[in-house]
Amino acid sequence: MQAIEVENLKKYYGKIRAVDGISLSIGQGEVFALLGPNGAGKTTTIEIIEGLRLPDSGIVNVLGLDVIRQPRQVKSRIGIQLQNTALFQRLTVAEVLELFRTFYPGQTRNSRELIDLVDLGEKKDTQSRELSGGQRQRLSVALALVNYPEIVFLDEPTTGLDPQARRSLWDTIRQIQKSGASVLLTTHYMEEAQELCDRVAIIDSGTVIAMDTPGNLIQQNFNETIIEFNTAGSRPLDGIFHGLAGLTRPEMVKDHHVTLYTANTVATLGSLMNLSERGEIHFDTLNVRVATLEDVFLKLTGKTIRD
Amino acid sequence: MKTIIQLYLANLKEYRRERMEIFWTLAFPILFMLLFGIIFSGNGNTTFDVGIANQDQGSAGAGLIQAFQGVSVFKVTTGNESTLMSSLKKGDLTVLLVIPPNMTASIAADKASNVAVYYDPTNQTTPQVVLPIVSQVVQGFNQGLTHQPALVVVTPKTVTAANLREIDFLLPGILAMSLMQLGLFATANVLVQLRQQQVLRRLGATPLPRSMLLISQVLFRLTIGLLQAAAIILVGVWFFNVHILGNPIILVGIVLFGSLMFIALGYLISGLARTQESSAAITNLINFPMMILSGIFFPLTLMPNWIRPLVDAMPLTYLADLLRRVMINSTPVFPLTTDVGVLAGWLVVCSLLALRFFRWE
Ligand SMILES: Nc1ncnc2c1ncn2[C@@H]1O[C@H](COP(=O)(O)OP(=O)(O)OP(=O)(O)O)[C@@H](O)[C@H]1O
Ligand SMILES: [Mg+2]
């Protein structure tokens, strides 16, 4: 049995096709990410799977249960972190966690363990309205872990976290996975998805445009090397890279930032140097690297992630 | 059950930690009570000045005057009509009775005669206290005329009522008002806020049955209603010497009943209002006319006729009447069944509509 099985899910808000025929299948113990630009339909999809919103059409099976017909059975076995965190403003961290424990019929983690999981030890007696954004976010993640969930849903769990807190949340996610639970998350950090996830789905305008392991996605989309640099000066760059040696596809130019894709790094670099010597272009910084998930994302969605 | 109690305690904990909420629900009604108490309990006298202009030459007129002089809380002044009328207008008299000429003769001929009673309707106590006593006295006098074995007797109930001051009337009214505001401001506005902050949504993401959440919230608000009642009554008793009569258990019952009705109204408003701003607008729109028109600060008799249908439809009118009836034993404006019936009607209608329109997000 798959942990999550979604078939041809649709949800329209008036003319907006928030979710337009998404199908997913997520295995037990798998860490799976939904990636996509703002408004792609990630939150809508994840909340339909959680049973918080009703789809217009489609099938949603979670842990073998029909979410639409048995929302409470599903909710008692999953853990949910919402994108907009909402808590009892005047209760302390420990009190909120203890309160949430009473909502679940089965076994629950005690609040000390939860507080340790998300590193909130110092703040356990602080009222939630006095927490910083990142601390509130961590509390919200802790709330998703109260009931030893079999699936954990995390909607942008690391947004607003400092680098250290982010890495510590990654550890938490790996721990969850080790315990046998599945994780469905969304993120705007591609390196995070690449680091954590077994598989990812890239969503745009409510449809899945690619779904595979991060490694496969990179390989399928780029067998080339990427050369990036900033140009100094205000000369127009139109057509300047045309016919440059080794290029495999048109360059991407944004302001003064240029990205080139090459099958022959040495040849391309050589002709770039020629351009520079002839004074047709001035480099600022130059960077040669292999492709990442972010490049796949940019290529497939045609936009930067935080446009 | 355990979950309901935990949620209820969580609500109380949050309440205790929020100074503003404590201020609006407890300190504000107390301040209100203190302020009005100081304004209205000024002289503290419990006698009423009654003017009688006797135009009758016979024994009946004199007998009626005697009957009024026998009422301990009445201080009777006699004189001619125009002089007394001007004292009434100056406020030196509470009521003016005009005994018509030839009353003795009319009575002898078994014909009815009209004793006119003039009073200032802006004075809250007159219609509720003085007029009933006046009619009691006249009634007693009538019975004397028809030779039934009745002297001029004022029943104990009326003697109690005779001790009522403005502040005694205000206290149940202010209590009714704060229960209404509990439903409007501390229920409707707060729920809309919880919805906007998505707290309700987060709870909807757990297996917690929504009915449990609802029950715990209502229980919490009923508790606040009782706290408000206790605070207002204690202020009345300690500072202004208000005597609370009536059965305390019935009083608690009515406080709960009234709170529940207004809490249901609050839930209904929270279901209809999309934003905090619109809910604030709706609650203020309801709060203001109810405060002014429900006979809490101004007597119902003062309301112009065209506005009476509105006054008669407002639940606060009946809750105030009911509380006055129970707390200070005043002469009620409406029959008991009307008070309870109208409130129960509001409760049922609001609850059904609230369930119909309630939204979690
Ligand atoms: N309740 C709603 N009513 C109307 N439109 C909605 C609603 N919820 C979402 N939408 C629309 O559906 C689309 C998808 O929204 P969704 O929140 O799923 O995007 P997302 O991928 O989570 O974006 P983000 O990365 O910004 O979180 C958006 O265009 C949004 O405006
Ligand atoms: Mg989202």
Can you describe this structure?
The complex is a heterodimer of chains A (307) and B (361). Chain A is an alpha/beta fold. Chain A has 2 domains: 210 residues, P-loop containing nucleotide triphosphate hydrolases (Rossmann fold), CATH 3.40.50; 68 residues, Alpha-Beta Plaits. Helices cover 31% and strands 27% of the residues of chain A. Chain A is built from 10 helices and 14 strands. In chain A, helix 3 packs across helix 4 and helix 8 packs across helix 10. Chain A is elongated, with a radius of gyration of 23 Å. The model of chain A has no long low-confidence stretch (mean pLDDT 90). Chain B is 68% helix and 6% strand. Chain B has 15 helices and 4 strands. Chain B has 2 domains: 111 residues, 3-Layer(aba) Sandwich (abc type-2 transporter like fold), CATH 3.40.1710.10; 192 residues, no CATH class. Chain B has a 4-stranded mixed β-sheet with strand order 2-1-3-4, with helices on both faces. About 4% of the residues of chain B have low confidence. The longest helix of chain B is centred in the middle third of the chain and has 31 residues. Chain B is elongated, with a radius of gyration of 25 Å. With 361 residues, chain B is mainly alpha-helical. The chains are: A alpha/beta (307), B mainly alpha (361).
Tell me the structural class of chain B: mainly alpha
Distance between the termini of chain B: 25 Å
Largest interface: A-B, 26 and 21 residues
- Ligand catalogue: adenosine-5'-triphosphate, magnesium ion
Low-confidence stretches of chain B: 148-162
CATH topology-level name of the largest domain in chain A: Rossmann fold
Please compute the radius of gyration of chain A using only Cα atoms: 23 Å
Strand content of chain B: 5-15%
Overall domain count of chain B: 2
Mean pLDDT reading of chain A:
90
Overall SS class of chain A: alpha/beta
Which strands sit side by side, in order, in the main sheet of chain A? 6-7-8-3-9-10
Report the mean per-residue pLDDT of chain B as an integer: 83
Please indicate the percent range of residues of chain A in DSSP E strands (runs of 2 or more): 25-35%
Question: In the CATH hierarchy, what is the architecture of the largest domain in chain A at level 2?
Answer: 3-Layer(aba) Sandwich
Largest sheet geometry of chain B: 4 strands, mixed
- The neighbouring-strand order within the major sheet of chain B is 2-1-3-4
Count, helices of chain B:
15
Elements of chain B, N to C (H/E): HHEHEHEHEHHHHHHHHHH
Biggest sheet features of chain A: 6 strands, mixed
